Amino acid sequence: MASVTPALFPAKLAPQRMPRGAIRRPALVEILGQGSGAALTLICAPAGFGKTTLLTEWLGTARTSAPATEFAWVTLDSRDTEPVRFWRHVIAALAGVAAGVGDRSLEAMRAGPDRILDVALPMLLDDLGRVETPIVLILDDYYRAETLEIDIAVEQVLSYRPHDLHIVMATRSDPALGIARLRASGSLAELRADSLAFSDDEASRFLRGMGVTGLSEQDERNLLHRAGGWPAPLRIAALLMPASGRAEFIESFSGGQRQVVDYLTSDVLDLLPPDRKEFLLKVSVLRRMNGSLCDAVAAMPGSGIVLADLERSGLFISVDAAGEWYESHQLFHEALQVELARTRPELVPLLHSRAAAWFERVGDLEPATDHAIAARDVSQAGRLLAAQAQPMAARGRRDRIRRWVAELSWPEAQRDPELAYARAVDAAVHNELDGAGGWLDLAATGPPDQQDSQGLPLSFRVDYLRAVTSINDVGRAEKAGRRAASAAPSARWEGMAWCGVGQALYLQDRFDEARACLHRSVALTPDENPILLCVARANLALVEAASAPEPVSERVLDGALELLRRTGADNTPSGALIEMAWGEVRRTRGELPDAVVHFEATLELLGAGTPSCLHANTYLLLSQVQYALGDSASALRSLDAADSILSRQRDPGALPDRARRLRQTLGTPPRRAAAHGAILTERESAVLNLLAEGCSQREIATSLFISHNTVKTHLKSVYRKLGVTSRDAAVGRLPLGGRTAASADLTRVRSAEG
């Protein structure tokens, strides 16, 4: 499957300009310089403590004081939680100071985005080990990108880094990088909020830099005490400082966020020119902004000039190194939003709607959807969500879909058929099958010809999704899938529809028909939809295991789990199906303990979802393997679990029949016959008992859920252990009390088996 390379943003690879009023802090700069012998320097403090400003100052100083050291800078944001994007920017920063570093790693990530830990990072560390110049890698705002996967990879770099690589990280909370271990081993240098808090002298210099002069030493100490040494409230206080009555102002000033927001809304905005205040209120619906976006939202030209003026004035607006994207200070941003909602509530949905339209126009659909939801525009949100729900689900991005549908909570949104389809997709990828069915019923009430951005009619989408999710009503799933296949607008969508039909046929024991449908699905489904492709391959393996006389080839499932891992979908129902199919492959090849591991993994993946026929089928397959391993008690518990689930399903297909056959087998106590010192296994005893009941070898295979060849192998072992050469002689070795009335009817057995 071809991977998509995330865009590289050069502005993230350089620090922002020093803000107005920034002071020099040589003592902290010296501490940073002394930390180069450690693996990690951690600057950890809440927002507004000047972490980025300190790093920027240090970088400017160190380039002069340590000319032999190279410095690579990355400013991280929330989109860097995607590992490929994270490491692409890190590698670009490193390559900027050491040519050629990371070239092989980039190629490895393009070839296998899921092979970062075991392929791309070892290559990167190898490249860095060949660089003779010391390198400092600065990761600013690490908390924005931190995930478990990112932490594991960064910890690997810290563990195996070359000696001349030093990492400096600014963040708001301790990352999960084994900080205590690094501290104990002397591999950590750290600066915390208490170190970053302003001293009396620093606060005095800062206030003078902000243009606040004439305060007494006591007034400065009081203000610093009110702010708790936190630089951000001091900046706000400096901007709010009145020309007279300063002692009273300082006495009433609070460093608590609520009081800061109150001052911003009541005083700062009232002091601005009316046109600037209007502009700031309108663009407060945006966290990050540029001139074009603000032009659209504020419905006025020249926003780029206004943003530049605001940034130069130090009014809580910062700009990236490229001078294009601006970001408002968090406290200021919140204050503006409070004031907008208080004074102009009717504007809020309109402004969000304009932002959504701008982002949609430039092709950035995710923030477009966020703003459409904030605008409470059901039509726009439905269109945007419909365009992304299926592709995002196919790429394993189910958490984002879930957040969106949760936010669409008002009654009109709950009743919308288009949004109901998106909710069904969300429920399906979380294995909430009853919920998916209910939302599909609502979606089916919408205009059948209503198309999404891919040109797919709503009726087709409902049938297609019902085909692959209605596993508790297999007859309905089959009908929906056949309708979708006949109405599919292209071969790729036809292939996805046949996947649902094949799955339904497998659950009805119509194996030949299922095999044909699933082969067609695999042939037509493109790699761009790895989840459905893996579902089709998993069901095909299950069909082969249930019907083919030979062990199932592993080639049917080769690479399937890796394909899902690349999209983060290995922990979904699709991943569970792959695990189930691997269990069946192992069973047909006689690798029974491995089969148990796969079936238990299947149940773990399915555990949080609605109990369904997927659970029931897994319990049935697990039960027969447990019985084959001689664990009759566990086999019976698994069978009971399957029956409990099946009793609540509308149309579970042939699964109840499979359960009844298996219960017949488990209801016959396994018998062990001794001969020549040998003991029959429980599975050999089961085969012999069924043979005594008049079953043919193929009937035995069906009853025990094993292949015909496996039955033959068991019989050969039985003959050898009992010292006999015929079926009659083997059955004769069973105790009379252990035979059924049918055990004497061996004529049918001989005629059926030739």
Task: Characterise this structure.
This protein is mainly α and 754 residues long. It folds into five domains: 10-196, Rossmann fold (3-Layer(aba) Sandwich); 200-255, no CATH class; 375-451, no CATH class; 452-664, Tetratricopeptide repeat domain (Serine Threonine Protein Phosphatase 5, Tetratricopeptide repeat, Alpha Horseshoe), CATH 1.25.40.10; 668-753, Orthogonal Bundle (Arc Repressor Mutant, subunit A). The protein is 61% helix and 5% strand. It has 40 helices and ten strands. Strands 2-3-4-1-5 form a five-stranded parallel sheet, with helices on both faces. Strands 6-8-7 form a three-stranded antiparallel sheet. Strands 9-10 form a two-stranded antiparallel sheet. Strand 7 (317-319) and strand 8 form a beta hairpin. The longest helix has 18 residues, at 530-547. The protein starts with 25 loop residues before the first helix and ends with a helix. Residues 669-678 and 735-754 have low confidence and may be disordered.
Detail the topology: elements first, then pairings.
Elements: H1 26-34, E1 40-44, H2 51-65, E2 70-75, H3 83-95, H4 103-111, H5 116-129, E3 135-140, H6 148-160, E4 165-171, H7 179-184, E5 188-192, H8 193-196, H9 200-209, H10 217-227, H11 231-240, H12 246-252, H13 257-271, H14 274-282, E6 288-289, H15 291-298, H16 303-312, E7 317-319, E8 326-328, H17 330-343, H18 347-361, H19 365-374, H20 378-394, H21 398-407, H22 411-415, H23 417-429, H24 433-443, H25 458-469, H26 474-487, H27 491-507, H28 511-524, H29 530-547, H30 560-566, H31 573-588, H32 592-606, H33 613-628, H34 632-646, H35 655-667, E9 674-675, E10 678-679, H36 682-692, H37 697-704, H38 708-722, H39 727-732, H40 747-753
Parallel strand pairs: 1-4, 1-5, 2-3, 3-4
Antiparallel strand pairs: 6-8, 7-8, 9-10
Helix pairs in contact: 1-2, 3-4, 4-5, 5-6, 10-12, 11-13, 13-17, 15-16, 15-18, 18-19, 19-20, 20-21, 20-23, 21-23, 23-24, 23-25, 24-25, 25-26, 25-27, 26-27, 27-28, 27-29, 28-29, 29-30, 29-31, 31-32, 31-33, 32-33, 33-34, 33-35, 34-35, 36-38, 37-38
